[in-house]
Structure prediction request, 380 residues.
Amino acid sequence: MNLPELSIEEVAQQQAMQELLEQELREAGGAIPFDRYMELALYAPGLGYYVSGAHKFGAGGDFVTAPEISPYFGYCLGRQCARAFDELPREILEFGAGTGVMALQILQELERLQPDQPVRYRILEVSPELRQRQRETFLHGSPHYLEQISWVDEVPEDFSGLILANEVLDAMPVHLFRRTKKAVEELWVTGEGGRLELDWRQARTSLKAAVEAIEARWGELADGYVSEVNLRLAPWMEMLASRLDSALMLLVDYGYTGQEYYHPERSMGTLICHYRHQAHEDVLLRPGLQDITANVDFSALRDAAVEAGFDFLGFTTQAEFLLSSGLDEMLGRLDPNDVETHMRVMQGVKQLIMPDAMGERFKVMALGKGLEENPLHRLF
Prediction:
């Protein structure tokens, strides 16, 4: 992997991150579990990947998300929001809004479908730098929407409305485990003299129980089988359930059902890193400057949600979700004589819906809290 030279700012950030990790390791006795390392690498205040000033999204960043590939992703979500507003207050809460492009697309479609019916749009964003980029997106696009937008630090109490999360769950810290013939092992990060290393140790009780539950449900794992499990899903869903009154939640991410996730052939897990549009597996590379993600176990997500008090409303692929949201109808509004625009739009749409792109790999799950019926019954 050819690594680009670091800027002066990135060198300073890396030095500060290294000092933070060394302090954390000293206080923990020389080792921290991988999920804690991942949490620091992604979310340490001012230094973590998602809260530092690094450029993450788009061609100049490390990855490209669906709303940046095609505005029709957000337009389709906007159409579903419009349907849900028949049953819910005109309130939207989006987790981790990235550059703000998806929020802009949603509000544009809502304005087209339901003019003169403003929406209160709240963004829960942990990164000050991304909050500023989101403001700039609206200032350069449609500044009048800023009257409807506010930024929050936590989920509001007694919230009623829609909750949206696109590519949020894949960035939750996970535990890495290895199944051996005799035991369940857990990955830890150690360090001495400024050098980080990975170390397999006997799993703690909670992780061991989680792995045994996986085997009881999906089948025994082979000797040497490596994967990950998200033990933070249940507490997150419980927190949401305690804050929500009546709400519809749409979660979009890449992942698998539990049976697919822990398939015998997926014996090295799903953890992946992204750095300057290169995917690799070196989780210790330049912590704070690279993304670290794991696929979502949608079976575990559904179970955690139901246990917390949510209603499971539906699950489908991204392609099916977009097509059921009226994608074909919207594309039909294009001018057939404008060949250049038509080709550009279709190129982006194909990335969203084709099976060998994002269409099958990304899934959509709908959850409800306090709803008398599914607002999206025409979809699920």
DSSP finds 13 helices and 16 strands in the chain. The two ends are 43 Å apart (CA to CA).
